[in-house]
Amino acid sequence: MAGVLGFALASCVQNTAVNPELVAASDVTTAPSRVAITIDDLPYVMPSRTSPEDGLRYTNQITAALRKHGIVATGFAVGQQINARSLHALQAFADAGHTIGNHSWSHPDYGTLTRDAFFEETRRTDEVLQQWIDEQRFYRFPFLREGETEATKVAATEILSELGYQNVPVTIDNDEWQFNADYVAALEDGNGEAAAIIAQNYLAHMKERTAFFQNLAIEELGSDVDHILLIHLNRINADHFGTLLDWYDEQGWSFIPVEEAMMHPLFSRLDNYAGPQGLSQIERVLGGKRE
């Protein structure tokens, strides 16, 4: 995934200055485009450290932000995290009109799995999700890692096809998960000042990543594409994703469902990357990571 631009929590606590690289990125502008919103790790991130009440609250905050902009999002659920504690949050996401997809049973790196293990990871979650999945059957690889060799890529494609799933890659990859870890740690330490700095840097990072991948498509592919943004259902997005959506709106972007984004020719182009990294689909088409 994209290199971490945020600074460590320790520096936040000791330093009240905002990361200057991200301050510059916070004023970035983009050309109007189209983007689908996808949300990983449903029901919610860090379930062992998150109460059912907080998990439901984070879900409701994110779905409220989506509703404000008329967005139908696609969320990808980890099967073993769906239980009595988290069920209400997952149901709330579905009840808000959003699509739920398969994100494996235990969130493993596909590169560590045998063919049979990948099949079982996908099948078990498929069984759990039956009440939420209908004709739209979407899959998201954990860590965006789709196979280290051409043979393992083909094997995954065959298994997903057998189970009736369509892989949903991303174009705008980012490290909001790292900002969330630092943000939660700051809040748990009672350091609101550090949390506010991390939130500001998170927003700047997301804007910079958006501009980076838009420019990469234009420069390397000849034109912009319909984008798919990756975020996670976590605390920092519950508190601040609405502000990011406002920015997209101000930049002239329109929000589309993932099935519409997937109709763009980018997603039918040959994937030229096999390896251990999780990459944007733009980078996969280009054959490797770009920075």
Automatic annotation (TrEMBL):
Residues annotated as domain NodB homology: 33-256
GO MF terms held by the record: hydrolase activity, acting on carbon-nitrogen (but not peptide) bonds; metal ion binding
Name of protein: Chitooligosaccharide deacetylase
InterPro entries: Glyco_hydro/deAcase_b/a-brl, NODB_dom, Polysacc_deacetylase_ArnD
Pfam families in UniProt: Polysacc_deac_1 (PF01522)
PANTHER family for the chain: CHITIN DEACETYLASE 1-RELATED, GLYCOSYL TRANSFERASE-RELATED
Family from the record: Belongs to the polysaccharide deacetylase family.
Entry's Gene Ontology BP terms: carbohydrate metabolic process
